[in-house]
Design brief:
The complex is a heterodimer of chains A (401) and B (591).
Chain A (H helix, E strand, L loop, with lengths): L14 H6 L24 H6 L6 H12 L11 H6 L6 H10 L3 H14 L6 H13 L26 E4 L3 H5 L1 H14 L14 H5 L3 H18 L3 E4 L2 H15 L5 E4 H10 L3 E3 L5 E5 L13 H9 L3 E3 L18 H4 L1 H16 L5 E4 L2 H14 L4 E4 H5 L3 E3 L1
Parallel strand pairs in A: 1-2, 2-3, 5-6, 5-7, 7-8
Antiparallel strand pairs in A: 4-9
Chain B lengths: L14 H11 L4 E2 L2 H5 L8 H8 L9 E3 L4 H14 L3 E4 L14 E4 L6 E5 L4 E4 L5 H9 L3 E2 L12 H5 L8 H4 L6 E7 L5 E5 L21 H4 L8 E8 L1 E2 L19 H5 L12 E7 L3 H14 L4 E4 L3 H6 L3 H9 L7 E7 L4 H18 L2 E2 L6 H6 L5 H7 L12 E8 L3 H15 L7 H5 L4 E5 L4 E8 L6 H20 L14 H4 L7 H12 L14 H10 L3 H12 L4 E4 L6 E4 L4
Parallel strand pairs in B: 2-4, 3-4
Antiparallel strand pairs in B: 1-2, 5-6, 6-10, 7-11, 8-9, 8-10, 12-14, 12-15, 13-14, 13-17, 16-18, 17-18, 19-20
Helix pairs in contact in B: 1-4, 3-18, 10-13, 16-18, 18-22
Classes of the chains: A alpha/beta (401), B alpha+beta (591).
C-alpha cells in the first residue's frame, strides 16, 4: 500500500508542516542519483514550466504559511487560485519531501484547495463544471448516465451477479471505450467473472482533487452502498485514479470498505505468477511504460505492469529515465487538464519526448486518463508513436491455463 | 506574541521601475503578485530572516521578483536597480542569507538559468549556469566516466554557483578538497552591472571557458568566495571534474527507511540495500574517545587512502533510525558508537587499489586503537547503518541534517587545524552550559563528537555543529542567535578566526575586528568601488561608513549589543568608535 496519504485536515492543522518546509528544494527535482541526465532531472511539472517558486510545493507550502498565520489574505493575490490549482497533484514533490523532511506538501495543497472552495473562491470555473455534471449525470463529462455501459458487447459482457465488480469510472466508458472493452475481454479470457454496479457514479476523484469535498463524499456514500448491495467481495479497476480514490480517500469517509481493491494489472500479474494464465507471442514491439501517478507514487504498484510486459514474448520493455516513484506525470491529473490545458499538454509532451528518447515505438500505461493526455500530446507533436493500454496489449494473447 | 495576527503590507516600487524590468526580461518574468512574493521570504539558514518573519517585518517581503535568463539580462536588471537606486538581492535555491532585509528590494531569482553550457571531457571540466544543481552535474559527468567529486550541500539543495559564495564543503574533501578548490573560472556580474571573467578564459585566446583557475594577475575568485552573495552574481561557473569508475547506471533503490512511512518495508529489508557503485566501498569504524578518533583519522588521511573521510559519530543515529524516538534511544544507549566515522575507498586505477587500501585501513585501525565494524564486530550496528549507504556518502550525505529536524544554522571553524575538533566540542559544551540548546538530540551530539570533514589529506578539518530551532518559536530562535554570538568570541579566544558562517556577514564582522584584522574595512573599500550605491544585498553586505555610524554606534541593533556583551564577558579589548563614528578602534589602543 502506498503512503502518500490524502487529505483532509483543515488548513490550519498543517501549521507545523508549513513552517517545517525549509526550502530544501527536493520537491522540484528527481531524487539523488536516480537522476540520469540534465534533460530529465526535473520532477515538478508546474515549477519546471512556470519557474516561480510559488508554482512548486515549497512555494505552495509558504503561501499556506502566510495564509495560516494571517500574514496575507486570500484576496491579496490575483494569482493565488491559479497557483494552487496549476498542480497535477502528481505527488512527485511528496515522494521526496516525505523521504527527506517527513512532510507532505500534497496534503497541504489539497487543504488549500478545500479551503478555497469553502470560502467560495475556488475551484476554477472548469472544475465547477465537474460538480455540475456529476450532480446531473453522475459523470464528470456530462454524458448521459445510461451511456456508461454503452461499450458492452457480446464478447465482453458482464454477468448479472458476481463476486467481482468491475468499476468503470468515467473516462474509460465515456472517452476510451476501447480500454473498457479490452479490460472486460482480458477478464473474460482469464476466467474471471465480473459484474458492474447497477448504478455506478463517478468515483469522486476530480472532486476530491479540486477541493469539492462535500459532493465527493456523496459519491463515496453512493458507490459504497451500491457495492454493498451487490454483495461482491472484490472491485477491479482499470483507472488508476478511481483505484487510488477508493483505496485512499474512501476509507477516510466510509471507514473500512470490507472488499478487496485491485487494479487489472495487479490481477493479471497475480494470475500469471500463480500459473493460471500465460501470454502468446506478439510480433516484436519495443515499448516503454509510463507509471500513472495514482497507481505508482500513491499506491506503490510498480512491478505488476512490468511483470506482464516481461511475460509477453515479443514485447521488449525499455525504461524511460524517470520511472516508478520518480516518474514524470502525464499532466492530466489534479484538475489541470480541464483548467490549464496548456500546462497539461506541455507536461504530456515532455513525457512523450522522454518516451521517444528510449527508442520505443509505443508508450504503454494502465490509466485511461493518462492515455487521453498522452495521445493528445502524440497528436499535437505529430510524432510516430503509439499509445496502448496494457489491457490492449494483453487482450489478444492471454491464455487461461 | 501579540503580533501574530498582523498582516504584512506589500511595499511597491514605482511603475517606471517595474516597466523597465519588464522591458529587460519580458513582462511574464517580473512579478509583484503577493502570493508569488510570499514564497521568497523563507531562506534555509537565514536566522535573522526567521526572527523577522516572526515579528512580521515588512522588509522581508520583496517588492518584486525578477527571473532573468542570461548574463545579459542579469546585467540589465542590476543596471536598472542602480539607475533607480533600488536595493537588490540575487539567489538560486535560497539556502543562505538572501531574504530581503531592506525596504523595496528587487529579488533576482536565477531559476531560468539552468543550462549546462559546456562539458569538456578532455580537460575534465563542466561550465554551468547558476541554477544547475549538483545532482545534474553528477549525472551528466557520470555518463562520461567523470564526476565533480563533491556531494555539495544536499545535491539538489545546493547549486555549485551559489555554494561557492559560501565556500563549499564536500564529502570528498579528503581527496578533492571541496568546491573552493574545484572551480576553474567564472563569470560574475558586479553590483554595478559590469561583468568580470575569472579563471583562464579571462585571457584572450584561451578558449570560451576556463580550463585552469590560473591566469596572470591576482586570483580574483577570492573576492567572491565566502561573500554570501554580497559582492557579485555568478552567472557562469566552470567546475573541475575527476575520474569516476562507479559507472553511469547506479543502483536504483536509494530510498532510506529511516522514516515511519518506510518502516514496514525497511523491516522487510526492501530498502537501502543497494549494491555500491562499481569499485567503491564504504567502511565504518569506531574509537574509544574523540582524541583517539582524531589520531586515527589523521593517520588515515596522511596515508593517502580513500576519497572521503568523515567522522559522523551520533549523527548516524538521526539519519538511520526509523523514528526520532529510536534515534534518541540509540544515542542514549550508545548503540551507535559516539566516536565513529567512515571512509570511502575507490579503486580508481584498478581492483587491486581497493584491496591495498583496505589493507592499509585495517593496519591503521589496529595501530591506533580503532575497530572496524564488520560481520564479526557489531554486525547489528553495521546493519542499522545500512541507510547511510554510498549514495548518501558520496552524493547527498549532508542532507541528513534536514532529516526531521528544523535545521537552521551551522557553526564551524573555517579551515581549522586538525585538533580543532576537540576545541569545537569544548566550545559547544560551553554553549550548552551558558546559553542552553534548542534540540534535545543534536546539541548533545555536537558536544560529544561534532560532524567532521577531513580535508586535503589531513591538512585541515572542518567541524560542524548544527542548530535546530523551530522556525516559529521566537524563543528558540533567540537562543540560537545568542549561541552564535557566544561562539564567535569563544572561537576567537582559542585563536581561530571565528565561526565561519557568521564571519562574512554583518553585524558579526565589524563586531570582531580581531577576525581580520579589521577585514570589514577592506570589504567596505571593495563595496565603495564596486557597489557605490550600496544596493547589493543592502544591509547584509559589509556596512558603509554611514550605515556603520547608524547601525553600530548611534542606534545599535539587538544583535550588536549581544556581541558586545559577550566580548566583554570573554575579556576582549574594549571597542570604541573612532571620532567620525565610521569604524571601531581598540580602547585602550592595542599595541
Amino acid at each position: 500500500m502506498g503512503w502518500i496519504v490524502g487529505p483532509h485536515k483543515p488548513l490550519e492543522e498543517y501549521k507545523e508542516e508549513v513552517w517545517h518546509c525549509q526550502r530544501c528544494n527536493w520537491c522540484k527535482i528527481g531524487f539523488g542519483w536516480t537522476v540520469k541526465s540534465q534533460k530529465y532531472h526535473w520532477s515538478c511539472p508546474s515549477f519546471t514550466k512556470f519557474r516561480y517558486d510559488a508554482y512548486s510545493a515549497q512555494g505552495r507550502m509558504h503561501i499556506a504559511l502566510a495564509l495560516i498565520e494571517g500574514m496575507m489574505d486570500w484576496k491579496d493575490s490575483e494569482k493565488l487560485l491559479e497557483i494552487i490549482y496549476a498542480c497535477d497533484t502528481c505527488g512527485a514533490c511528496a515522494i521526496n519531501c516525505i523521504r527527506i523532511m517527513e512532510n507532505n506538501p500534497l496534503e497541504v495543497i489539497e487543504a488549500l484547495r478545500a479551503r478555497a472552495v469553502e470560502l467560495g473562491i475556488g475551484p476554477m470555473p472548469a472544475h465547477k463544471r465537474f460538480a455540475e455534471n456529476v450532480k446531473v449525470t453522475h459523470n464528470v463529462y456530462g454524458e448521459p448516465h445510461v451511456d456508461r455501459i454503452k461499450w458492452v458487447s457480446d464478447d465482453a459482457k458482464p454477468l448479472a451477479k458476481s463476486d467481482t465488480v468491475l468499476f468503470m469510472g468515467c473516462t474509460s466508458p465515456y472517452r476510451r471505450p476501447e480500454i473498457m472493452k479490452a479490460t472486460a475481454r482480458v477478464l473474460r479470457a482469464s476466467g474471471i467473472d465480473f459484474t458492474l454496479l447497477p448504478d455506478e457514479w463517478c468515483c469522486g476523484s476530480p472532486l476530491f482533487r479540486t477541493g469539492q469535498l462535500e459532493l465527493a463524499e456523496k459519491m463515496v456514500q453512493h458507490n459504497v452502498e451500491a457495492m454493498k448491495a451487490t454483495g461482491a467481495r472484490r472491485v477491479i479497476f482499470n483507472c488508476a485514479g478511481c483505484y487510488k480514490t477508493f483505496a485512499i480517500d474512501y476509507p477516510k469517509i466510509a471507514g473500512d470498505l470490507n472488499f478487496e481493491l485491485m487494479h487489472i494489472v495487479e490481477l493479471l500479474a497475480d494470475l500469471y505468477n500463480k500459473g493460471k494464465i500465460r501470454f502468446n507471442k506478439l510480433p516484436t514491439e519495443i515499448v516503454t511504460y509510463h507509471d500513472p501517478c495514482h497507481m505508482g507514487r500513491y499506491l506503490g504498484v510498480y512491478d505488476a505492469p512490468r511483470i506482464i510486459l516481461d511475460a509477453i514474448k515479443g514485447i521488449k520493455l525499455v525504461e524511460m529515465e524517470r520511472i516508478k516513484d520518480q516518474a514524470w506525470c502525464c499532466g492530466a491529473g489534479g484538475g489541470v487538464r480541464a483548467a490549464f490545458p496548456d500546462l497539461s499538454l506541455w507536461t504530456a509532451k515532455q513525457r512523450i519526448e522522454e518516451a521517444r528518447d528510449t527508442g520505443a515505438a509505443t508508450i504503454v500505461s494502465s490509466c485511461p486518463f493518462c492515455a487521453t493526455n498522452l495521445e493528445w500530446a502524440i497528436k499535437e507533436m505529430k510524432v510516430r508513436m503509439k499509445y496502448k493500454d496494457i489491457t490492449q496489449i494483453a487482450e489478444n494473447v492471454i491464455v487461461r491455463l | 506574541m501579540s503580533t501574530k495576527t498582523k498582516r504584512v503590507e506589500h511595499q511597491k516600487l514605482p511603475r517606471e521601475v517595474i516597466r523597465a524590468l519588464q522591458d529587460a526580461v519580458g513582462p511574464e518574468w517580473v512579478s509583484e503578485d503577493r502570493a508569488i512574493l510570499e514564497t521568497y521570504t523563507i531562506f534555509t539558514i537565514d536566522l535573522g530572516a526567521y526572527l523577522r518573519k516572526n515579528t512580521r517585518d515588512p522588509t522581508l517581503l520583496p517588492s518584486c521578483v525578477v527571473l532573468p535568463s542570461s548574463t545579459e539580462e542579469v546585467q540589465a536588471v542590476v543596471r536598472i536597480a542602480n539607475r533607480y537606486k533600488v536595493p537588490f538581492t540575487a539567489f538560486s535555491n535560497g539556502q543562505v542569507m538572501n531574504a530581503p532585509a531592506y525596504p523595496r528590494t528587487i529579488l533576482i531569482h536565477l531559476a531560468r538559468m539552468d543550462k549546462i553550457l559546456d562539458i569538456d571531457e578532455e580537460n575534465m571540466s563542466m561550465t554551468v549556469q547558476p541554477f544547475v544543481d549538483y545532482v545534474t552535474v553528477q549525472a551528466e559527468a557520470r555518463r562520461r566516466g567523470l564526476w565533480n567529486g563533491g556531494s555539495g550541500w544536499h545535491s539538489a539543495t545546493a547549486k555549485p554557483a551559489s555554494q561557492f559564495t559560501v565556500a563549499g564543503l564536500w564529502q570528498t574533501d579528503l581527496k578533492y578538497q571541496g568546491l573552493a578548490r574545484n572551480v576553474l573560472g567564472m563569470k560574475v556580474v558586479l553590483p554595478t552591472g559590469e561583468t568580470v571573467n575569472m579563471g583562464s578564459h579571462a585571457v584572450a585566446g584561451t578558449g570560451k571557458y576556463s580550463f585552469c583557475e590560473r591566469f596572470p594577475g591576482p586570483k580574483l575568485m577570492g573576492l567572491i568566495k565566502e561573500s554570501f552573495g554580497t559582492r557579485g552574481i555568478i552567472t557562469e561557473i566552470t567546475l573541475k571534474l575527476h575520474p569516476w569508475v562507479g559507472g553511469a547506471d547506479l543502483p536504483e533503490d536509494v530510498s532510506r527507511p529511516s522514516i515511519a512511512h518506510y518502516y514496514e518495508e525497511a523491516k522487510q529489508k526492501k530498502f537501502d540495500k543497494p549494491p555500491p557503485p562499481k569499485r567503491h566501498k564504504i567502511y565504518f569504524f569506531e574509537y574509544p574517545d574523540l582524541e583517539a578518533l582524531i589520531d586515527g583519522l589523521l593517520k588515515m588521511a596522511r596515508s593517502g587512502i580513500g576519497i572521503g573521510l568523515n567522522a559522523s559519530g551520533l549523527y548516524f543515529a538521526m539519519m538511520c533510525a526509523a523514528t526520532n524516538e529510536e534515534a534518541e534511544k540509540w544515542v542514549k544507549e550508545q548503540f551507535i558508537p559516539p566516536f565513529s566515522g567512515y571512509i570511502v575507498i575507490a579503486g580508481i586505477s584498478c581492483e587491486e587499489q581497493m584491496r591495498y587500501e583496505e589493507k592499509v585501513l585495517k593496519k591503521i585501525l589496529e595501530e591506533t586503537g580503532g575497530k572496524l565494524l564488520s560481520e564479526e564486530y557489531k554486525p547489528e550496528v553495521l546493519e542499522a547503518l545500512a541507510p547511510w549507504n554510498l549514495e548518501f556518502a558520496v552524493n547527498t550525505v549532508t542532507g541528513m541534517r534536514t532529516v526531521r529536524g528544523w535545521y537552521l544554522a551551522t557553526a564551524l571553524t573555517p579551515y581549522a587545524p586538525f585538533y580543532s575538533a576537540v576545541d569545537s566540542r569544548d566550545v559547544w559544551r560551553n554553549v550548552m552550559e551558558k546559553i542552553g540548546s534548542t534540540h534535545s538530540l543534536f546539541s548533545p551530539i555536537g558536544a560529544t563528537c561534532p560532524y567532521l570533514y577531513i580535508v586535503d589529506r589531513g591538512h585541515q578539518i572542518e567541524t560542524e555543529i548544527d542548530q535546530f530551532p523551530k522556525r516559529n518559536d521566537f524563543k528558540q530562535l533567540l537562543t540560537t542567535l545568542e549561541s552564535f554570538a557566544f561562539l564567535q568570541p569563544a572561537f576567537i579566544k582559542k585563536m581561530y578566526s571565528g565561526s565561519m558562517m557568521e564571519t562574512p556577514g554583518e553585524p558579526f564582522m565589524s563586531s570582531y575586528p580581531e577576525t581580520g584584522p579589521n577585514q570589514y574595512l577592506i570589504w567596505r573599500k571593495y563595496r565603495k568601488v564596486f557597489d557605490p550605491n550600496g544596493l547589493m544585498m543592502a544591509s547584509r553586505a559589509v556596512l558603509s561608513d554611514e550605515e556603520f555610524k547608524k547601525e553600530q554606534v548611534e542606534n545599535p541593533r539587538g544583535a550588536v549589543m549581544t556581541f558586545h556583551k559577550w566580548r566583554e564577558a570573554f575579556g576582549f579589548i574594549k571597542l570604541k568608535p573612532k571620532l567620525d563614528k565610521t569604524a571601531w578602534e581598540f580602547y585602550p589602543h592595542k599595541e
